[in-house]
Amino acid sequence: MSQVTTEPRSRASRLLPFALIVAGALAGWALLGDYLSFETLRDNREALLAFRDSHFVTMVAAYMTLYVLIVAFSLPGATIATLAGGFLFGLFPGVVFVLMSATIGATLIFLAARMGFGTALSARMDASSGTVRRIIEGIHDNELSMLFLIRLVPVVPFFVANLLPALVGVSLSRYVFTTFFGIMPGTAVYTWVGAGLGEVFARGDTPDLTILFEPAILGPILGLCALAALPILLKALRGQKGF
User: Fold this and answer.
1) Taking residues 119-124, what's their average pLDDT?
2) In this predicted model, what pLDDT tens digit does every residue of 143-187 receive, in sequence order?
């Protein structure tokens, strides 16, 4: 009898962290979806700057808490929050606040996925095919390189990059390390754009978020991607040559 009652409780306790994140995401999308926007930042910029000047530590704590929640619950507005970090705090220390907040939020998703999904879903992921399967195999064979790649390549959704490592047994320390440094280039670009929002607001314009795909910006990021992919390529070549 004890096994019959313990197993459902154990399963429920494993699913609870992820269930809370899903519930929080639904609530956040319903309640905050219309507020986490460029227009909200523009219309409240003077009040935000005044509060920052008079309560700097409180503003930093509130900003980082909101950013963690946005990432942890996959709410809309992560790009706006990054821009706000640059607008409120400048490129530095704004980029540090953004990096820390994004990494903490991503780690919460990682831990919830690891605790909630368990080995059953991990087995399903291992049995998958297509792009997901190739990424999983790449992580298994070249863990650090693949973890950096899925963070550096702009086309990999942030939520996917948060979940996949948890489902293939990546260690927490490696996940945190590669998340923090892997998102650094793109984060620095958007925080830099945010630092110039004062002039954008003055002109009545909207920020140019396509800057990440400008050759001068995208080129160095792709160079980092190539550097991260180099160990994978060398390993593949050695395998083909029988080294």
Assistant:
1) 54
2) 888 888 888 876 777 878 888 888 777 889 999 999 999 999 889
Run of H or E residues at 129: none
Q: What DSSP element (H or E) covers 16?
A: helix 2-32
Nearest residue to 70 via CA among 86, 59, 81: 81
Tokens of 15: 């699913």
At residue 243, the 3 state secondary structure works out as coil
Q: Are 191 and 91 in contact (CB under 8 A)?
A: yes
Whether residue 218 contacts residue 186, with contact meaning beta carbons closer than 8 Å, is answered with no
Asked if 225 and 147 count as a contact pair (C-beta separation under 8 A), the reply is no
Q: CA–CA separation, 161 vs 149, rounded Å?
A: 10
**DSSP codes of every residue in 173-222:** HHHHHHHHHHSHHHHHHHHHHHHTHHHHHHHT----GGGGGSHHHHHHHH
Contact 101, 68 (CB under 8 A): yes
Within the chain, what is the greatest distance between any pair of CA atoms? 71
Domain locations in the chain? 2-241
Instruction: Find out whether 79 and 37 touch, Cβ atoms under 8 Å.
Output: no
